């Protein structure tokens, strides 16, 4: 029986690398994975997903395959053996519900990777929907600069100060975000190594 998976974690916990490895494993067995990302995520170029450790591959846009009409969605995904979706936090609630229908009605596994919360610790709507609908919910771990588990996605300004207001979505990488434990998130302490990067 196929399942809907939500694999979440703070930034820099290797979500994309994990997604790429899963796709590789399917292909190594002669199976055909459909690797997707939202159009909004364009940091590495269109139709490319890339991890911080340098792994990358071509992908498709979720908007071109997962649509409001189930019959159209069914036609577009029928040749694949699984769906792997990176940056799922940028999806819509209706797309998440359609993915649940794909799992249930087509017996097609769907593995979603993304953030649970934003830089203000507020849940992304797609993540909230996945927490309600996913059959399997897994946290991918990363660490704060202090060595404790990091669960907070922390947005930084151009001087390396922790940002406490703004729009939920602002694309960026290590120059704009860092992962902190709850203690250092609330203290606004990004650690000496990260602070040194902004002093250069």
Question: How are the elements arranged and paired?
Answer:
Layout: E1 4-8, H1 15-28, E2 33-37, E3 48-50, E4 56-58, E5 60-61, H2 70-77, E6 82-85, H3 93-106, E7 110-114, H4 125-133, E8 136-139, E9 152-155, E10 177-180, H5 182-187, H6 192-199
Write up what this structure looks like:
The chain is of the alpha/beta class and 200 residues long. It has 2 domains: 4-139, Rossmann fold (3-Layer(aba) Sandwich); 152-199, no CATH class. 30% of the residues lie in helices and 20% in strands. The chain is built from 6 helices and 10 strands, in the order βαββββαβαβαβββαα. The strands form 3 sheets. The chain has a 6-stranded parallel beta sheet with strand order 5-2-6-7-1-8, with helices on both faces. A two-stranded antiparallel ribbon has the order 3-4. The relative contact order is 0.19. The model has no long low-confidence stretch (mean pLDDT 92).
Short description:
This protein has 200 residues and is α/β, with parallel strands linked by helices. It has helices spanning 15-28, 70-77, 93-106, 125-133, 182-187, 192-199, and strands at residues 4-8, 33-37, 48-50, 56-58, 60-61, 82-85, 110-114, 136-139, 152-155, 177-180.
């Amino acid at each position: 029986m196929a399942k809907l998976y939500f694999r979440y974690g703070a930034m820099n916990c290797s979500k994309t690398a994990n997604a790429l490895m899963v796709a590789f494993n399917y292909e190594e067995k002669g199976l055909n994975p459909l690797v997707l990302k939202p159009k909004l995520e364009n940091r590495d170029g269109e139709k490319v997903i890339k991890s911080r450790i340098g792994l990358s591959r071509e992908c498709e846009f979720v908007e071109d395959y997962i649509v409001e009409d189930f019959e159209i969605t069914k036609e577009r995904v029928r040749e694949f053996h699984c769906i792997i979706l990176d940056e799922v936090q940028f999806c819509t609630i209706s797309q998440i519900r359609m993915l649940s229908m794909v799992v249930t009605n087509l017996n097609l596994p769907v593995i979603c990777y993304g953030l649970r919360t934003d830089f203000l610790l507020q849940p992304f709507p797609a993540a909230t929907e996945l927490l309600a609908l996913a059959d399997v919910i897994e946290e991918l771990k990363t660490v704060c600069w202090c060595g404790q588990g990091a669960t907070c996605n922390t947005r930084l300004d151009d001087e390396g100060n922790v940002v406490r207001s703004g729009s939920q979505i602002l694309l960026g990488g290590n120059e704009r975000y860092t992962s902190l434990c709850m203690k250092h998130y609330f203290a606004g302490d990004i650690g000496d190594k990260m602070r040194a990067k902004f002093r250069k």
